[in-house]
Amino acid sequence: MKFLKILFLITALFFLSGCNNLTQEDNSNLTVTDVFGRKVVLKERPVKRIVAIGPGALRLVCYMKLADSVVGVEDSEKEWGATSRPYILAYPQLKNLPGIGQGGPRPNPNLESIIAVKPDVIFAAYLTKDQADAIQSKTNIPVILLSYGQLASLDINDIYNSLRVIGEVSGKSDRANQLIGYIKGIEEDLRNRTKDILPDKKPSVYVGALGMAGVHGIESTQARYLPFTLINAKNVADEIKGSGSLMLDKEYLIKLNPDIIFLDEGGLPLVKEDYKKNRAFYDKLKAFKNNKIYGQLPFNYYATNVEIALIDTYFAGKVIYPERFSDVNINTKADEIFKEFLGKSMFNEITKNYPGFVKIDFKVL
């Protein structure tokens, strides 16, 4: 009987030991659910080697302080000017990495080049599920989909979800929580400054010349435009559609006739050129007659530079509600935001190619 008890104990210990090994083996892989609900198995965790494809994917990786883990970049990231994408200014070494195929609104990744740099994971934005699955199948490398929301606009919740996924995959969840907390703090600050302003005390506003797959004139605008929604501004474009980019008929803009107009400085040269040719149209807009035209930094270039969108929001607040934002120095605030997102103060460098946050006097053209 004593022998049987010993044998049973040895057998039980062996069985439990085997179970633990199986659990460890099962848990050696991490299954991640990306922002589109795809379940992706990662064999390496946390990942050490990263590539990013599609509009904005590399930017989010840089926000997460993972630039040193990137082993290859799209050719377009190496070819385009850096001032349009602050993450390239912050991490210029990215331009020296091997190319992994042409980027752009319809990225064309070179799968052989991606395989050659041996990434543990591919982060991708603005690809379909089928495209992501196909790349994953052909390369045998996990593909994690990220999102900013609709292209040329910005959905903060999608950004939060993308940052969390990158954090989970890379072992940098603390960084994700830190950055999300910072953005939420900005949202709260902006909301508290403007939440109690009565509708009849708000001037009507409009933003024109917004970048959208290229530069455009004053007709290019957006309903539910994030820098306006964050400060509860009275955006005249919200009367036209629920949300998203649109090209507004000029005559309809005269009908809306906003009190204040902001112009994306990426498209500002087109507006100036059009102003010289069609002065009669602009003279019908009260914002032009009253010299209430303001420039803002462009933030849509290969998806959204989130940090610049937030900086633009503070400037819009100073213009629309000067008494509520009198304590904000826009240069100081801009560098604070750049440092939080990308680790460097870059406001002066970014504004080298643009007028910056200024009133634009068209009457002197």
From TrEMBL:
Q: Which Gene3D superfamilies match?
A: Nitrogenase molybdenum iron protein domain
Q: Where is the signal peptide?
A: 1-24
Keywords in alphabetical order, please: Signal
Q: Which domain of life is it from?
A: Bacteria
Query: CDD domains per the record?
Result: HemV-2
Please state every residue range assigned to the domain named Fe/B12 periplasmic-binding.
49-324
Q: Looking at the keywords, is Electron transport present?
A: no
Q: What PANTHER family has UniProt attached to this entry?
A: MOLYBDATE-BINDING PROTEIN MOLA, VITAMIN B12-BINDING PROTEIN
What is this protein's name? Iron complex transport system substrate-binding protein
The organism is Thermodesulfobium acidiphilum
